Amino acid sequence: MTVTTQVRPQRWDQPFGLFMTDQDVERLLTVPEISAIEESKFPTHCPLKGILKNDARIVKYSAGDIVIREGDYGNSAFLVLDGSLKVVLFPGLPGEMLGRRTIRKKSLWQALKQLWNQRKIPEVRDVKRYGLQALVRETNDLGAAHVFLQDVPAILDKNKTASLGKGALFGELAALGRTPRTATIFAETDAELLEIRWQGLREFRKYDQGWRRLIDKRYRANALNAHLRATSIFSHLNDEDLQEVADATLFETYGKFDWHLTYNKLQAQDKTQGAKDEPVIVHQGAYADGILMVRGGFARVSIDRGNGQQTLTYLGAGDFYGADELFRAWQGDTNVGMRVTLTALGYAEMLRVPSKIVEKHLFAHWSSKRDGVREVVAQTSAESRRLQDFIDRTLTDGALMEWAVEDRFVNGTQAMLINLDRCVRCDDCVRACSAAHDGNPRFIRHGKTFENWMVANACMHCADPVCMIGCPTGAIHRSMSGGMVIINDDTCIGCETCANSCPYSNIRMVSIRDEAGQFITDPQNQKPILKATKCDLCADQISGPACVFACPHDAMRRVDFRETELDENTSRF
Q1: Are 199 and 82 in contact (CB under 8 A)?
Q2: Do residue 393 and residue 416 come from a single domain?
Q3: Most exposed of 203, 204, 247, 467 (fewest Cβ within 10 Å)?
Q4: Do 272 and 388 reside in the same domain of the chain?
Q5: Domain count for the chain
Q6: 243/238 Cα distance (integer angstroms)
Q7: 543 with 487, same domain?
């Protein structure tokens, strides 16, 4: 009997930089910001030199090349080795300069015209347009390209900017927290940068006290106060008290940053994880030692039920839990423990505000005010009642939420939900989508089902869009208005990064054709040029999503699972 074996994949089987050499590593060790790292603090299985060689790469930019774009999601930070960069502060660059798609609604005449001007050949492109590619500049890195600015002096005249020079570090907060970039940075002169992916940043922060202090200090100064201020329970604090809360707040990370890789493997094996296999943030019955706030990702809320656990709901970025338990303990209740278990749903970045700080700045503050105790009781009681409503549901009532959480549909803000009891399979939705997209529909009318509900294979415009991480040109991006995840066909280079990253298989690569119906090919290898396509919510259609507009039986909706209540008994939205 022959046994097939395979070496277990290792973390550094796929290094970040394909051309990093030992000589490059030795050179980096002489850079002041790197040489200050205590190499002896790193374990043998994760040495400093290994991180530099496998989790970092040296990237060269020409003058005018954009390094990061405002609004993009990235997974790396940059250290300037040489050259000068500019940060665009105000008013910011228009989307066209950043390689993004400009959305313009069709006129009524254009909308009618597309109904009888359907192409017989799908995915036709204007060859002349692709011959220009005015915004994209090739690089030496495989599968990479840079979007560049053509008139840098004019940009400097019209925008307020700041300079970054040798030794500057930027991009680390968005990389570690998976949040959008807050500014656009481009090369003012030819520049050489060290790009460090988030895994390397994590190890630097974990094993080197200097980098940990640097990153934590920058986050506390630039982002934490804004996060606390935007949370209802801390919004009343003055700047001094808010800073005290920020200084005491603890950062915690659970699960895997690239959770979609594990999720895709589980889906391919037809396996589900469940709460029992997820990293635990807090156990049911545990001592309440602070308020837990979600900074990024999702956390499952569940309770022990029989021999297993039942999902009640979930928490997303900006949500918090624990105020009710802390308040009851502060009032003198004994043996107050957490009523639920919180686990990381793939990945969760948490902030923990210690109980002493909460008591001082929330409970003591409210009790000193007129009707203050009544105010805090009202807030915590509302939280408690909402949770109790979830707990009181039967297993059957909560099954739909269990399904939505298990399959990560809670990530979607515009999921295509079809009521199969109403759907007659007429395919009017598919034909309408095809008519709106030059003969090729942007979704497939099948997907995962629960009872009479189906989530079709269409882009859900996720709250946590992992598809956007790693796109070399920023072709896949959020629209500045509406937050739709869209693709700029002109700057898409067909690298398939987004399609491979989408946990729901909702991005398809298509071979494009010219007006005569012939495949447009790469002159170097004669292979067809690929472009990424997906649902764009019919952003240019005056009717909105054509699929929903065309459904004659009201069987389809675009839904945000965070806000949607489905009637499982009547099969209605």
Answers
A1: no
A2: no
A3: 247
A4: yes
A5: 3
A6: 9
A7: yes
Domain of 49 in residue numbering reads as 11-99+141-207
My answer on whether 443 and 325 are in the same domain is no
Q: Are 375 and 366 in contact (CB under 8 A)?
A: yes
Distance CA 147, CA 137 (A): 6
Count Cβ atoms below 10 Å from residue 375 Cβ, excluding itself.
14
**Count of Cβ atoms closer than 10 Å to residue 379 Cβ:** 16
Q: What is the pLDDT along the chain (573 residues), one digit of tens a residue?
A: 443 333 334 567 678 888 899 999 999 999 999 999 999 999 998 999 999 999 999 999 999 999 998 888 777 899 999 999 999 988 888 887 887 777 778 777 777 777 667 777 788 887 666 544 567 777 766 557 788 888 888 888 889 999 999 999 999 988 877 778 889 999 999 999 999 988 788 889 889 999 988 888 888 877 888 888 888 888 888 889 999 999 999 988 898 877 877 787 777 666 555 667 789 999 999 998 999 999 888 999 998 887 778 888 889 888 899 988 898 888 888 888 899 999 998 888 899 999 999 998 888 766 655 444 445 545 554 555 555 555 555 545 567 778 888 888 989 999 999 999 999 999 999 999 998 887 889 999 999 998 899 999 999 999 888 888 878 777 888 875 667 899 988 888 898 989 999 999 999 999 998 888 888 888 888 888 899 999 999 988 888 899 999 999 999 999 987 676 655 444 555
Tell me: do 360 and 471 sit in the same domain.
no
Question: How far apart are the C-alpha atoms of 544 and 535, rounded to whole Å?
Answer: 12
Tokens for 8, please give them: 């277990």
Nearest-angstrom CA–CA distance, 249 and 228: 10
Q: How many CB atoms lie within 10 A of CB 561?
A: 22
Whether residue 394 is found in the same domain as residue 412:
no
Phi-psi region of 64 (alpha: psi -120 to 50; beta: other; left: phi over 0): left
- Give the up-direction half-sphere exposure of residue 313: CA atoms within 13 A in the CB hemisphere: 19
284/317 same-domain check: yes
Residue at a domain's end among 367, 398, 429: 398
Cβ-Cβ contacts under 8 Å for 512 (sequence gap 6 or more): 123, 124, 125, 519, 520, 528, 529, 530, 531
DSSP E strands in 306-414: the ranges are: 308-315, 320-321, 341-354
CA 467 and chain centroid, separation = 8
Residues 451 and 387 occupy one common structural domain: no
Domain of 490: which CATH number? Answer: 3.30.70.20
Tokens of 427: 């395919």
